[in-house]
Each structure stands twice: as C-alpha cells, then as structure tokens.
Amino acid sequence: MKRQALEKHLRRHGCLFNKHGKKHDHWINTITLAQAPIPRHDEIKFGTARNICRDLGVPDPPNR
C-alpha cells in the first residue's frame, strides 16, 4: 500500500504526525496516545500497515 494512503487513513482515525526519526516518521493517536513508527518508503507491505494500525489502535487499512 502507498505510504500516502496509509497516512490519510491514520489521519481519518485521529492520528497525527509526531516527529521525524532517522529512517521512520513517528505518529501518535491523539485519543489513546499510542505511538508507532512508519517507515519512509513509497510502498509499505500490507502486513506492516496492518500492524501499524493495530499499534495505534485504529481499524485495519482497506484491503490493498
């Protein structure tokens, strides 16, 4: 899945960009305060995107 599509999905569910890391951007869920790193690749594997969503406490992303 495209990183931009994942970020859009996260924003819809109350998550915001928190800070830049060396190889990842860190996002935070403003409701639960859960945090997760997102790799800075154009394509993110669906399983990785699903795990990011679960770490942040939001619904799974749409299927591919």
Q: Which structural traits does this protein have?
A:
64 residues; alpha+beta; Metal Transport, Frataxin, Chain A; 3-stranded antiparallel beta sheet; 3 strands; 33% helix; 27% strand; globular
List the helices and strands and how they pair.
Layout: H1 3-12, E1 15-20, E2 24-29, E3 35-39, H2 46-56
Antiparallel strand pairs: 1-2, 2-3
Describe this entry's structure for a reader.
The protein has two helices and three strands. It is of the alpha+beta class and 64 residues long. The protein has a three-stranded antiparallel β-sheet with strand order 1-2-3, with helices on one face. β2 (24-29) and β3 form a beta hairpin. It is globular, with a radius of gyration of 10 Å.
